[in-house]
Amino acid sequence: MAENAKPDKIRKGDGKRQRGNRSGFTTGACAAAAARAATLGLVLSEVPETIVCHLPNGSDVSFAVTDGCVEESSGTAHAVVIKDAGDDPDATNGAHLTADVRLLPHRAGEILLAGGPGVGIVTKDGLGLEVGGPAINPVPQRNIRDNVRAVAGELLDHDGLEVTISVPGGEEMAKKTLNARLGILGGISILGTTGIVRPYSTAAFRASVVQAVDVAAKQGQTSAVFTTGGRTEKFAMAQLPELDESCFVQMGDFVKAAFASAIKRKLPHVYVGAMVGKLTKMCQGLAVTHAWKAEVDRDILAESAQEVGAPPDLVEEIRAAETARFAAERLAGLGLAVEFHRRLAIKAIRSLKGMHPGPYHLTVLVCDFEGNFICRVEEEEA
Q1: SS3 label, residue 97
Q2: Contacts of 78 (CB under 8 A, 6+ apart)
Q3: How far apart are CA 338 and CA 273, in angstroms?
Q4: Which of 85, 176, 216, 358 has the greatest number of beta carbons closer than 10 A?
Q5: In 3D, which of 168, 77, 183 has the Cα closest to residue 117?
Q6: Taking the model in full, what pTM does it have?
Q7: 12: CB partners within 8 A, 6+ apart
């Protein structure tokens, strides 16, 4: 190694690259497989131990079926498919997607879809689902019906079928999700646009951001409060107690998706809650602020430190440092934390309004690493 060469650094994102990449299946795909198996059970008087299910993405996948049974006297069949989320850290991994299919005599062609225990009930507009109905999204609804129809065959020529999807323990699983904030109560949602779960799916997270903004807008809210995680959200909620919980949206790294959604919904007030690292990335104009996409621009940190009177040697240390936290902590030690973060917030506002123009009013709220208030900056100050 050359005398001045530095050893390879382990960057914040590198550990995540070691995660597994095995894909899994959505709750929607598993529900459709269970419904198909139960329906076939009604037709054959026996539920199969495996079922090939047609997924929304066009592929055919074999699922193991458990707890299959048929009660011919009542015209019902029961089947369970256990969800395998692959290597995704999904709150519903291992869930027992359960289908109970019941014959509806003399109701030719009808396929009614219902939610049982553990499937959430929709209580707010904005999800594209009927209020009071089960939280089974449109694509899974279609896919369940298509799979039932594919194996029901002639049975539907003279009778109909009622398909009830339930998830034992779903109410507890839902506590690990944002369902309650979206107005989905009592259980999980049956989701999935392709049928496949990709590990650490950015698409799923981005979609949840858009959905959360839609729900807030449909509730008549006029503000969206975008935060980068749980700590900044808790901080923002404490700063804005007058706002309804539905206004608060954890955008994570998805700045562009969040702002585009708020602009599309014509929300007049947008707030951002952030700490120094993500705040600096917003100054950079990044659409996605994840460490894999781009590192923090240390020149922005160094220039901001210089602007608030940091000593020249510290400015150069900040320019060479690996993290934004280094700058925040050193400047806090000099009593310059508020001025430094205010400079960053002003630059972030200029960048965000430039990248995402619209008639909304933007406010940036900044906290430290423990979630303590540092400053609040309005766009008029930028």
Answers
A1: strand
A2: 38, 41, 47, 67, 68, 69, 70, 98, 99, 100, 101
A3: 15
A4: 216
A5: 168
A6: 0.73
A7: 291
Residue 305 amino acid letter? A
**Are 120 and 188 within 8 A, CB to CB?**
yes
> What integer pLDDT is reported at residue 181 of this predicted model?
86
Torsions phi, psi of 170, nearest 5? -65, -30
pLDDT, one tens digit per residue, over 199-255 is 666 777 888 899 999 999 999 999 999 999 888 999 999 999 999 999 999 998 899
Q: How far apart are CA 209 and CA 255, in angstroms?
A: 10
Residue 55: strand, helix, or coil = coil
The ranges of the chain annotated as CATH 3.30.2110.10 are: 24-195
Pick the CATH number of 24-195 from 3.55.10.10, 3.40.980.20, 3.30.2110.10, 3.40.190.120: 3.30.2110.10
| Partners of 351 in beta bridges | none
Token readout for 280 is 């600096």
182: which 2 tokens?
């979206």
Three-state DSSP class for residue 43: helix
Whose tokens are 């409060």? That residue is: 225
Q: Which residues contact 13 (CB under 8 A, 6 or more apart)?
A: 290, 291, 292
For residue range 17-68, what is the model confidence (pLDDT) as tens digits? 445 678 899 999 999 999 999 999 999 999 999 999 999 999 999 999 999 9
- What angle is formed at CA 82 by the lines to CA 81 and CA 83, rounded to 5 degrees? 115
Q: What's the token pair of residue 255?
A: 């700045």
